Amino acid sequence: MTNAKASADPPTDPFEAAPPPPAKHRFRPATKSLPRGVSPDIFGTSGPPLPFAKAQQQHATKAGLPPAVPEVVPWPVKGPTLRELMRMRPPEPPKKPEPGTPRDEPERPRRPSRIRRMARIMIAVLGLVLAYLIPAWILSGKVLPGTTVAGIDVAGLTASAAAERLTDRISAIADADIAIKVGERRFAVSPLKAGLSFDVAATVAELPTGFPGPIDLVRAVAGETRLRPRISVNEAKLKEQVELIAAEVDRPVHQGAVVYRGREPVVVPPRAGVRLDQDEAVEAIKAAYLNQTTPVELTVRTEPPTVSVEVLKRALPEARRAVSAPITLVNGDRRAVLEPETIAAHLRFEPDDSGRQVRPVFDARAGVASVEKELLDPATAPRDATFRIVGGRPVLVPGRSGRGVDTDALAAAVVKAIGGSGSRTIPVVLTPAKPRLGNAEAARLGIKQKISSFSVRHGCCNGPAANIRKAVELVDGRVVRPGETFSLNETIGRPDAARGFVEAPAVENGRLVSRVGGGLSDLATALHHAVFHAGLRIVERRPHDFHLARHPLGLDAALSYPDTDLRWRNDSRFGVLIQAYASGGTVTVALWSTRRYDRVEAEVSPKRDVKPFETVTGEGPGCVPTQGANGFTVTVTRVFRKDGAEVKRDAPVTSVYRPQPRVVCEGSTRAVTERRTALTPNLAPAPTPKVLTPGE
């Protein structure tokens, strides 16, 4: 029983001496996973002894056999079972660490599950929605916080309350004039006349008063909403106001010319033009309305001339030859003379388009106007429509067509004659001619009432009275159309003896002298005073060298052909009829049109800078004795009133009068006495100015 003894020896394997592990820790291979033909018994029993095994053990005991070898149980090892080991995947080989990656990386936290992430996102979104909806619901229907219109706070107000606040605060600004600055000139534009007004409805419509969006809510909480008031614009009215400013500012480019001062040609240098950018001005005024803090500066464009002074100077010799002799106009046995002064008054030398040459230009229409009647048969000559005053109202006197001087042919002939290639005796060509003012046009001019009138006492005796009567015939009945400029010198023409003018006292170089056509300054003063109080624009006026007592302070006007002129422009939309007449030692000028102002007044300053006169001795036949008068300075401002309020005023005009010396003429007592008697009316006080009132 060697085998039995051997088997009875203590096991050499340490696992054999170990107590069997509890049944629950015994290894029990899965029979399903064993290869075919392998019995699980080779691994020992893992459960309670089988019935036949127990019987065999009892039989061996009775037969005296040694007990069976105890079951060998492996050393209990903690770890996965064989089944789990067989199901486990072989471990993946370790990856090589990338360059720059630390070998021992900390253990990454385990990511939350997808459901947790979704839950957290939903909670965050719900919180944001509630954070928006709650304040949005509270602020809905009211202007959001931080909202201002032109600096006026309207936050928290309803639309109607905001409209009331804006109307109250902005109404004063909306009616204020808009200050305009163009260079050194300043203007004021009335919003009412310019068609500008505050649009309350459009402004309130832009206020954030509905249910606010997220961006609006963030801006209301963290920022500020600044809105500009909306305006309503009448484009036609605004452009009309800009055009009025442009009429005052614009200055066309002047290429220069050679003109005459008397009979002496002088060069008028070229001058750059200035033009207001009207489109830009319209936009600038719009932007400034309701937002103005400083005057609106408008932009002007400069247009340079294309001719030089040297080119103009080359024409001076030819200009002197042009007025060296008169030009005689002939129509059959009728003759008329264009004196050198008349030629000079309507002749100028202008540069051509290239700017390299200068050519003469003669205004034949104006040049022949004063002598045309002498060349035409009164029965066939054209006649302009005019008016005569009947029963204190103007009545139309129809004009008619006829045959008149062809002014285009005359202009070409004069240019040829002054250039030396033609004769200075020019046969005029007659052509069918229409009146300068037709009947239909005259009827539409709005000449219906007297708008001003003034009378001046003129010098006595035959000289001044004869000259004034002659000039009145040429001025009376003239109609000045809208936009037309009236020149008294051009209307009267050269006052020479051939045309019926005589010698009379006149102011020359600060003294009274006797000359042909003297005394016409009384007519000029009466006309200037009437134009002044009619509110028409005065273009050119010069006061006398010294003040005459019969003339109003600062409103007199000197006249001396061709240098000293009185010119005024009809800046109304109505025609102006000149009525002039002389009687009883006075000359009267009345203007008829449509009244634009209730009153036009003259604010006359007190005399200042008074300078005493001195006594001098004169001799010769032209000496006129005078009593002398002090010199002084006076300023006159024209004020326009309508509907009881002042609507505008002109810039002040200053007149400086030199002292009139006391002149003692050497000669016979009779001559001195006659001249002193002739001047006596001149020293009479001036009549009180007559200012017309409505209905007069």
Task: Give a summary of the structure in a few sentences.
This protein has 696 residues and is of the alpha+beta class. 29% of the residues lie in helices and 25% in strands. It has 21 helices and 37 strands.
How would you characterize the overall build of this protein?
The strands form 14 sheets. Strands 31, 32, 34, 35 and 36 form a five-stranded antiparallel sheet that branches. Strands 22-30-29-23 form a four-stranded antiparallel sheet. Residues 1-8 and 668-696 have low confidence and may be disordered. The chain is built from 21 helices and 37 strands. Helix content is 29%, strand content 25%. The chain has 696 residues and is an alpha+beta fold. The chain has four domains: 2-86, no CATH class; 122-305, Roll (Ubiquitin-like (UB roll)); 314-436, Roll (Ubiquitin-like (UB roll)), CATH 3.10.20; 445-683, no CATH class.
- Portion of residues in helices? 25-40%
| Radius of gyration from CA coordinates | 58 Å
Distance between the termini: 173 Å
Number of domains: 4
Anisotropy-based shape: elongated
Determine the number of helices (DSSP H or I, runs of at least 4 residues).
Answer: 21
Tell me about the largest β-sheet: 5 strands, antiparallel
Task: Name some characteristics of this structure.
696 residues, Ubiquitin-like (UB roll), disordered C terminus, 5-stranded antiparallel β-sheet
